[in-house]
Sequence to fold (357 residues):
Amino acid sequence: MLQKNNTGDTDWQDVYITADYGDTIYYRIVITGVDEITDLVLHDALPAGYSISGASALTIKLYSSSSDNDARTLTLGTDYTYSTNSSCSVADGCDFEIDFALLLAEDDSGDAYYDKVLSLTSNADEAFIEIIYAVTVDTTSSYIATNSVTDSAVANTNTAKIVSSGTTKADDASVYYFELYIYKYTTNSQGTEVPLDGAEFTLSYTEGTTTYYAVATEGDDGEYTFSRWTTDSSEATALTTNDSGIIHIIGLDKETYSITEIKAPDGYALISDPETAGITVTTNSQSGLIETVSVSGATSSVAYGSGTVDATKVENTKSSAMPTTGGIGTTIFYVVGGVLVIGAVILLITKKRMKDE
Fold:
């Protein structure tokens, strides 16, 4: 089971979660039947781009039952040992393992069993071990394109294996991230869409009364990698369209986003109303994993690079405002206009004075 940002036990998910690159991912592993097994080792293989900061990232507790509020926290070196992939006893590609051999004891007949567990719990038949740990996620984690999901690599799957008495039980949990394309264009007199570069946007979403703005790292030519959310609009990253009118941002959670133009291309009017783009998913009825991804809003297929992308389209029109540049002609216009206004005021005052006389 897993969740993001440690939001509470009720939020644990069995199969997958969706997240931003900026989220901290928490995993929860529950091992039951600990009063009957003779040995226990947990092997964990993290997705590419995930890392754990060591044994200090682990919280391991022994519960007497599901309703036990007084769980005992197990101690590294006393109740279990921790090792990384370089020293794992089983060469199965795991990133770290937790060995509970220190919980083993022998009864009078010399049989190994979890006698220590029995002494530590008030209800050994229902006792279980809970392991919770946080991982950090870098920006090499795979993200899902806005089309059918056919590559399992995009799932960022964590595989945990529990080895006990020669039996191995494995379970998976996956994390998904998404992408978003924005396409800026105008329509010429022939009705053809023409991409516009140099437009700037912010990406945000609102939860309750709070608006969160995206902070992202700029890459090459309109490419951005999401890093975190901020409630300070002045910290928001200005996402700028490239020569193809495209902004591409990766590492987003599924959400309904507002795309707000903060700077129009030269000669074009600034759009006052934000566009909306909602990332939605469908899941496979058998596996429970994400099967397709789509983006709602003003989205359609746009030619980009060697193919096409599904992009949220934002159209601009030419500005109708009078130009503020143009050399001496404009200057003369303003000077003459100013003289006429002053002349009218002088005339008005003169006439008023003449009438008073």
In short: The longest helix spans residues 328-356. DSSP finds two helices and 26 strands in the chain.
